[in-house]
Design goal:
Blueprint: E1 9-15, H1 21-31, H2 37-50, H3 67-72, E2 79-84, E3 89-94, H4 102-109, E4 114-120, H5 127-138, E5 143-149, H6 158-174, E6 179-184, H7 208-214, H8 218-223, E7 227-229, E8 232-234, E9 242-249, E10 251-253, E11 257-261, E12 265-274, E13 277-279, E14 281-283, E15 287-292, E16 303-306, E17 312-323, E18 334-339, E19 342-355, E20 362-363, E21 373-386, H9 393-396, E22 397-401, E23 408-417, H10 433-440, E24 445-450, H11 457-470, E25 475-479, H12 480-483, H13 495-514, E26 518-522, H14 528-537, E27 543-548, H15 552-558, H16 563-568, E28 590-592, H17 599-612
Parallel strand pairs: 1-3, 1-4, 4-5, 5-6, 24-26, 24-27, 25-26, 27-28
Antiparallel strand pairs: 2-3, 7-9, 7-16, 8-9, 9-15, 10-14, 11-12, 11-16, 12-13, 12-15, 17-21, 17-23, 18-19, 18-22, 19-20, 19-21, 22-23
């Protein structure tokens, strides 16, 4: 039965929990004869064990494959199914309805051409309905089916269907959602799913399957500018160099002038190679290898475009984020950004607002939590090529990945580049860093002491500085308390403020090493991500992390400033070790046990670390 006259359609089902998404897909599979006899017999057995439809076969179990889902009667993961009719092939994603699984829904929506948003006719439009509709709008899905399900339980009420349709359509217009086609259905009994319902003579529109088979999704891709992300540089032998990837949008012909971004080099297409041989041209969806008329460099992640239809190239841009991890977004924290096939370091420089999905209000916020949506500014570690997401989903979407856990932290949609401060450039110094250090007879170095409050890190750092000064070295000591009296006096002790505090300290320390100094930094710096962010600011071998590993109970006993006592009485919020976490360094350059010996001995150990690394002698010519 497989056919694809109208092209492949990727669609997802979404909406609030228990609106019947899995049942609807099961009904589509069953009524289009994609359930084998042995599979149906197994389904009958499963329905008796896990079903929720009484004596009837529970079609939702065709999709809800996870045991946890069957026991709870909900969808947790994103389930993908393939089926085809004589007119079209389909890939459907059944996504979770519970709020805590919104990130799974966003994952399914990111690749969909169309969304079926289900509404239980008994409940109407709910918060989760609006949340999923908002994500569909953000992720660029412009074709929406509003499936008003379980209409059989409301006696096939036309007036009720019209009220729900009007309420959803008003919300869809408010958020800029595209075309909405409303269909009254009963997934359990099959009304208006594949076959037209005799119980709803008042409905004159298409059945769900009729609409899915005929909706046009290919023309959008074909009419957009040509974009191909280089996935692989093919070099089977010395005489061949090709750039392989899939055409995301538009088309390309042999002889066309192209540009390779972000570098901007231009050349012409020499050959286009498809799976079955050479082609004169390639179109959206084609997997091809392109060779060029001149020896032009390109690498994985570069974007090949028509020379006269270029996207933006920038290292700063505004974007919307759907936050997808339990670890909150903290502006200033470093992440890895994947855009197309390119990976670059990136950080959120500003959180403009958090979106209230019910009211669509823009709310002030210091961070984003799991499943929250916000608008941000992002700075990438290198220029990237992109279109706005509204213009091209393929080149305007990205993800942020946690550097250390490798979990996807957020799905992002680019709004526009930030073209600011174009009159600011790096000014070359008249005296180089190496010359400044040579005049001091030392190597520029940042030695970073981290540990709990009361661990002894400042005492050890001061002792080390005294030893360095006595030997004629040029140093500067940066201490957390001192900087909070001046440079960082505007910052508090929330997680977001702690991140910004460490970022500023790192930038200050970097400037001081440019002067050839040995900089000693003593900061609790509780988050591993920020300590590693500071390390990344310095050249290899110029940064040393020293972990003063004093147990919490010993720090509490010392409590030189009386802070732990206040924190345990609840008088100091967000206090590290009590009400805020400390992430121990995993691989410090030096670990010191301040309990086992005097600070002078620990300072001597740190001094030996610097001497053995060659930081206390001038660089050899």
């Amino acid at each position: 039965m497989a056919g694809s006259d109208a092209g492949l359609l990727r669609f997802l089902t979404c909406g609030s929990v228990d609106d019947g998404k899995s049942t609807l897909i099961g009904r589509l599979l069953h009524d289009t004869r994609h359930v084998m006899e042995d599979q149906f017999r197994s389904l009958e057995t499963d329905s008796r064990r896990h079903g929720t439809t009484g004596e009837d076969v529970d079609l939702a179990l065709l999709v809800d494959g996870l045991e946890a889902e069957r026991e709870q009667g909900i969808t947790i993961d994103v389930a993908h199914r393939y089926f085809a009719t004589p007119r079209r092939a389909f890939i459907v994603a059944d996504t979770p309805g519970h709020e805590q699984y919104t990130r799974n829904m966003a994952t399914g929506a990111s690749e969909a051409d169309l969304a079926i948003i289900l509404v239980d006719a008994r409940k109407g439009v709910l918060t989760q309905t609006r949340r999923h509709a908002t994500i569909c709008a953000l992720l660029g899905i412009r074709r929406i089916v509003l499936a008003v399900n379980k209409i059989d339980l409301m006696e096939y009420d036309e007036a009720l269907f019209n009220r729900i349709t009007a309420e959803f359509s008003a919300f869809a217009e408010k958020i800029g959602l595209g075309e909405v086609v409303a269909i009254p259905v009963s997934a359990r009994y099959g009304d208006n799913v594949v076959e037209r319902s005799h119980a709803m003579a008042w409905y004159e529109g298409p059945t769900l399957l009729e609409h899915l088979e005929t909706v046009d999704v290919q023309s959008d891709l074909a009419t957009r500018p040509f974009r191909l992300s280089v996935q692989w540089v093919s070099r089977p032998h010395a005489d061949f160099r090709g750039f392989a990837g899939s055409v995301a949008t538009g088309s390309i012909r042999v002889g066309d002038e192209i540009a390779i971004l972000p570098a901007g080099r231009t050349t012409h297409v020499d050959r286009i190679l498809g799976p079955d041989g050479e082609l004169d041209e390639a179109h959206a969806g084609d997997a091809v290898t392109i060779t060029l008329q001149t020896e032009t460099d390109a690498s994985r992640g570069d974007l090949i475009v028509h020379a006269r239809e270029r996207p933006a190239v920038a290292d700063q841009f505004a974007a919307r984020l759907v936050w997808m991890t339990d670890e909150p977004l903290l502006p200033g924290r470093g992440y890895l950004m994947r855009i197309g096939d390119r990976w670059v370091p990136a950080s959120v420089t500003a959180l403009k607002y958090r979106l209230d999905v019910d009211s669509q209000e823009h709310l002030a916020a210091r961070g984003l939590g799991l499943n929250e949506i916000g608008e941000v500014n992002i700075a990438a570690g290198a220029p990237v090529a992109f279109d706005s997401y509204a213009d091209n989903r393929a080149t305007g979407g990205f993800i942020l990945v946690d550097r250390f856990t490798n979990t996807t932290a957020a799905a992002g949609m680019i709004l526009h580049p930030l073209r600011r401060a174009t009159n600011i450039h790096h000014e070359a110094p008249s005296v180089e860093k190496a010359a400044r250090a040579a005049a001091k007879g030392q190597q520029p170095t940042c030695i970073w002491f981290t540990g709990l409050s009361g661990s002894g890190k400042s005492t050890i750092a001061k002792a080390l500085e005294a030893k360095l000064h006595a030997s004629g070295k040029h140093t500067m000591m940066l201490d957390g308390d001192n900087l909070r009296h001046g440079l960082n006096r505007d910052l508090g002790f929330t997680d977001a403020d702690r991140v910004e505090n460490i970022r500023r300290v790192g930038e200050t320390a970097k400037l001081m090493t440019e002067a050839g100094l040995i900089v000693l930094c003593s900061f609790i710096s509780p988050f591993r991500a920020e300590r590693d962010m500071v390390r990344a600011m310095f050249p290899e071998g110029e940064f040393f992390e020293v972990f003063v590993d004093t147990p919490l109970e010993d720090c509490i006993k010392r409590d030189p400033k009386g802070l732990y006592a206040k924190a345990m009485r609840g008088e100091i919020p967000n206090f590290t070790g009590i009400s805020s976490p400390y992430e121990r360094p995993e691989f410090p350059d030096l670990r010191l046990d301040a309990v086992k010996g005097p600070p002078q001995d620990a300072a001597e150990t740190a001094l030996k670390l610097l001497a053995d690394a060659g930081r206390l002698a001038a660089a050899s010519a």
